[in-house]
Amino acid sequence: MKKDIKHEKLVRAALYIRVSGEEQKIKGLSLEAQQERLEKYARDRGWIISGIYIDAAKTARKNIHKRVEFQRMIDSVKRNEIDVLLFCRLDRWFRSVADYYKIMEILEAHNCEWATSDEEYNTSTANGRLYINVKLSIAQNEADIDAERIDVVFDSKIQHGTVISGSCPFGYRINSEKRLEIEPDKAAIVQDAFNRYESTINQYGTVKYIRETYGVNWCAITFNRMLQEELYTGVYNRRGRYNDNFCPSIISREQFDRVQKLIKRNARSTPSGRVYIFTSILVCAECKHKLIGYLSSRGTYYYRCNNHYLRARCTHNHSIREDVIEKWLFDHLKEEFEQCKLDWEVKAIEKRRSVTSTDRATLKRKLSKLKDLYVNDLINIEDYKKDYEIYTNALLQIPESSTEKPPDFAAIEAILKNDFKSIYKKLTREEKRTLWRSVIKEIRIDNDNNITGLSFG
To answer: Residue 20, exposed/middle/buried by CB under 10 A (0-12, 13-18, 19+)?
Structure first.
């Protein structure tokens, strides 16, 4: 746009201000400095300031949909509430040629123009449009180079165990060497929280327990994020950067992995506060969706496939009572578990056998070729003996070369060894839910209310 835009009617101007970092404040591009210049520019031309839109700490290379105030300003343009957008410099608006033309389509459709207070542009000529393209391309290139330099610096910091920001998870603090170190009192709270969650599988209950026990007031969202914070294991794994020894660990890797499995299985608490024992582990055999629990008017707990009842996308139109599932598990849990172990052992043997037979055949072919090479005088006796020894030793080692660690069946075995039924009857509903989720990954139920299979884990 030309720097001086002439209008006969009153012009509604939107002031757009953006700062991405401290360096720009030094260069005279602070929020206050930009706003002063833009307001003066608008007043000198008799424009009405219809809105001031400020994106602080936002880079112009960020996706335009993530610049909240910018999007709010464009929404006003779409409602025909703005006649001209005003900003200090072109790079305050964009550092992307593609984004510039996307927004220009919107502005042209709503007869909205743009102007800069510090620079001169003219979109009415071919040379003027070319100049804008060049300026945007240079700004985009500068931003890309800066980003690459920052990435290199951040990569180095992570590999050396140095923090790249001033924030850190609860339980850690940043020492004088810019590294994370454990804050013992808070770390003990984190450990207790993980232990509590693992034993109850109840995030809200754990948050309440921590608040009442330690006076630490986490919200449910914060605690959920903490449960999935890999830094607690000492591992940094973010945005493609990885260091498995970034900081001291507060939680063991084994416990962290167990908690992640529980989070995936765990269902959201119902508003009524009811506990559905099998929620999140019952699966529709037809559509593979989770079965949802509900309480009948007679106080009986049922589970059904909402993919049928709410969406009509499944043929599973029968509900199954909770006590029916419990009885089936009492009667069949041991045999299902034994069959699961047997299936795993058979598959492991077949896998080893397959790998073994393939490797054996390959080595035997090589020995045969080696013999042919020697017989045809293509290799000497020394080379023959050396290669023959290598291949025969490899053959001897094949049976032990492919071993797979078996699943951990300890939890279910411990349950089956005890007086399972009598212990189960004494448990609360929440404790029963915790027990089943700790040993069973999935129970598959078909439309005839038959349990077609279990997965342990």
So the answer is: buried
What's the rounded Cα separation, in Å, for the pair 100 and 140? 11
Mean pLDDT of the chain: 80
Q: How far apart are CA 200 and CA 205, in angstroms?
A: 8
Beta-carbon neighbour count of residue 404 at 10 Å?
A: 10
**Adjacent-strand bridge partners of 172:** 182
The sheet with strand 84-87 has its strands ordered as 48-56, 12-19, 84-87, 113-116
Please give the order of strands across the beta sheet that includes 292-295: 292-295, 301-304, 320-321
Strand blocks (E) in 202-250: 236-238, 241-243
Q: Which of 85, 76, 81, 84 is nearest to 18 (CA)?
A: 85
Q: What share of the chain is helix, strand, coil (3-state, %, to 5)?
A: 55, 15, 35
Domains of the chain from N-terminus onward: 12-141 (3.40.50.1390), 172-265 (3.90.1750.20), 324-456 (no CATH)
Q: Please give the structure tokens belonging to residue 13.
A: 């101007």
pTM over 0.70: no
Both tokens of 419, joined, read 């007086």
pLDDT above 90 covers what percent of the chain? 32
DSSP E strand boundaries for 316-395: 320-321
Q: Residue 238 pairs with which residues in a beta bridge?
A: 241
- Contact present, 290 and 420 (Cβ < 8 Å): no
Residues of the chain with pLDDT under 50: 2-3, 22-26, 60, 269, 271, 400-402
